[in-house]
């Protein structure tokens, strides 16, 4: 069973309560339960984390270097500001999929730039919390493909 890290950035702990017209009514606990269920169906396990602190996300990326087969990351506001998270992701040699619940390209101009996208193997934006499941499916597919080589 491969381990997939699902990392969430600032304010996602308020999912379902904060701006539901943008982010929906599902909570982060709902997203986690869906991710765990799908990962298990696909034969994988997940570590699911959320932090409002940049350094914790970096520490989890470093941890994933040791035992992770892939990362799904919603860096939230750190998407647009964190070279440090990009640098950490650049040390991770397995698949990385970037997820955004909202369509960041339909929002304020500053949200159109992502440092994380420079490393991500794929980006999913604007598909609501379903984007997490699509990202897990893609990471699982990439893990399987890498195992066949």
From TrEMBL:
Keywords: Amino-acid biosynthesis, Aromatic amino acid biosynthesis, Lyase. GO terms for biological process: amino acid biosynthetic process; aromatic amino acid family biosynthetic process; chorismate biosynthetic process; quinate catabolic process. GO terms for molecular function: 3-dehydroquinate dehydratase activity. Substrate binds at residues 74, 80, 87, 101-102, 111. The keyword Amino-acid biosynthesis applies. The keyword Amino-acid biosynthesis applies. It holds the Pfam family DHquinase_II. The active site is at 23 (proton acceptor), 100 (proton donor). The record marks 18 as: Transition state stabilizer. Its EC number is 4.2.1.10. Gene3D superfamilies: Dehydroquinase, class II. Homododecamer. NCBIfam families: aroQ (TIGR01088), PRK05395.1-2 (NF003805), PRK05395.1-3 (NF003806), PRK05395.1-4 (NF003807). Catalyzes a trans-dehydration via an enolate intermediate. Belongs to the type-II 3-dehydroquinase family. This is 3-dehydroquinate dehydratase. It comes from Rhizobium sophorae.
